[in-house]
Amino acid sequence: MNRYLPVARQHFLAALASTSVVVKSICAAVLLLYLLSWAVDTVYVLGVTPGYLFPPNFWIWTLVTHAVVEQHFVDVAVSVGTVIAAGRLLEPLWGALELLIFFAVVNVSVGLLAGFSYLLTYVATFNLDYLFAVRVHGMLGFLGGVLVALKQTMGDLTVLRVPQVRLKVAPMLVLLALAVLRLTTLLESTAPLAAYGYGVLSGWVYLRFYQKHSRGRGDMSDHFAFASFFPEILQPVVGLVAGLVHSVLVKIKVCRKMVKRYDVGAPSSITISLPGTDPQDAERRRQLALKALNERLKRVEDQSAWPSMEDEEDEDEDEVRTDVPLLSGREATSPAGGASSSKSPAGQESSIISFEDAPSNS
């Protein structure tokens, strides 16, 4: 295994070098705070503790710092890998500033939602451990948001071939894996599960309703609906419940009703609003169609590269013809000016008649 470490380090440094200063800064903060955790309890000071987040303590800075705090090397590797993956896959599409906004929105939302949920749990159970023994920290919340963003941009990408697993089901598969780990007590706390779940939720809400882009705000395409995160058998029920919740949020002015628009490429600049269509969904289908067309054209070119048998036969006939010497009229005539006989390579006589010196009838 030691022989693979230099190769892995080389790939890691190459991937890190190709990212922006935002990604490099976040990775540096994670590594620096991990080294600092050997001397100071960074999770207590910089992680989200529900009892200290709300008044009278109000440790508001932990909403920003909890994501870059780790205590174990494996967690550091997961955090750095998540940030680099976001920089390589999402930053070229969004830009460094939008990636930083997404990072801040998801992590602040995870801290608030997790702290508030543990506060409600304390109200229901009166157990002080939910207020002061729980520490929410790490990049699992941002990992959930990144997987949601990758589902939006490249959901049809195949992650595993046997069994076939596509990227669009990755957010819920990771959530299911964390739930199983918690049920088997391999996870000591519910904080990682809660952080990842709230990361998925906050990432989807931001990308669905609030992210600004050239076509407006949000993504109302059908393939990015909330029901698409669940198995097909549950999608009708989840879609109905999600529609009711969204209608309530629209009425209380938390969300605004989105209009789906489809831009028709025509000589005149006309924008037609059609139900159930979206430019991002159409663009995704267009890219898939172009990819399939390019693959078919490549296969046709590979097949046409083989020479045909007819061309080979024509080339052989041309070679035979060039091997037979051509005689001019002078060389073919006899001294008497009549016919002369010449032997072919096969030994047969052939008569060649020349009328060049024949007397004309006057």
From TrEMBL:
Coiled coil: none annotated. PANTHER family: PLACENTAL PROTEIN 6, TRANSMEMBRANE PROTEIN 115. Residues 309-320 have a biased composition (Acidic residues). The chain crosses the membrane at residues 12-38, 58-87, 99-124, 130-150, 170-187, 193-210. It comes from Megalops atlanticus (Tarpon). It holds the Pfam family DUF1751. The keyword Plastid does not apply. One of its GO terms (cellular component) is membrane. Residues 334-347 have a biased composition (Low complexity). Keywords: Membrane, Transmembrane, Transmembrane helix. Its main location: membrane. One of its GO terms (biological process) is retrograde vesicle-mediated transport, Golgi to endoplasmic reticulum. The keyword Transmembrane helix applies. It is a multi-pass membrane protein. It is found in: Membrane. Residues 348-362 have a biased composition (Polar residues). This is Transmembrane protein 115. Residues 301-362 are annotated as: Disordered.
